[in-house]
Design goal:
Elements (H helix, E strand, L loop, with lengths): L6 E7 L4 E4 L5 E14 L6 E12 L2 H10 L5 E14 L5 E9 L5 E4 L13 H6 L32
Parallel strand pairs: 4-6
Antiparallel strand pairs: 1-3, 1-5, 2-3, 3-4, 5-6, 5-7
Length: about 160
């Protein structure tokens, strides 16, 4: 029997990414993403909204680097990873559990959504010029490869002209 552990979210960051390093020195990023739904209450006719907060942890060093450089509070993002629950002990000794969306290795993806002008500025003025060219976008493959192309800048194949 097969199984699948996959989570996809589109939402907004509630805070700037939190960056830390593992004991081995690898970069790890933590994000808090808000997803919202709204509806019209049938009984009152009133507009209602519910927001869910999701914890996302990025163990892929290249994706963590992108998150650090380009994501800011309010950024709209698409993330895809695996759901993972971990157990930890609180200061009072009681057991606690946290459920997170985890992006590691090739099993995760981040895509920055929205117009380029909608994105918050990078950590420093040099970051855009040094890290990206005009044909690169914020879409980051799970492999963490070096070049990210804007899907709208792709060459669209057309049929040869018929005479």
């Amino acid at each position: 029997m097969s199984s699948l552990n996959r989570a996809s979210l589109i939402g907004n960051l509630g805070a700037d990414p939190e960056i830390r390093r593992t004991g081995a020195g690898a970069k790890v990023a933590s994000l808090r993403i808000a997803t919202s739904e709204s509806w019209k209450d049938k009984a009152s006719g009133e507009r209602k909204e519910r927001t869910e907060w999701h914890s996302v942890v990025i163990f892929n060093e290249n994706l963590a680097e992108i998150a650090e450089k380009y994501l800011r509070k309010g950024s709209k993002v698409f993330v895809e990873g695996q759901i993972q629950t971990r157990k930890w002990q609180a200061n009072d000794g009681s057991d606690r559990w946290s459920t997170e969306i985890v992006l590691r290795g090739f099993a995760g993806q981040i895509v920055m959504l929205g117009q380029r002008g909608d994105r918050p500025p990078p950590a420093s003025e040099d970051d855009y010029g040094a890290a990206r060219t005009s044909t690169q976008s914020a879409a980051a493959p799970a492999s963490g490869g070096g070049t990210y192309r804007d899907p709208m800048d792709d060459d669209i194949p057309f049929a040869p002209e018929v005479r």
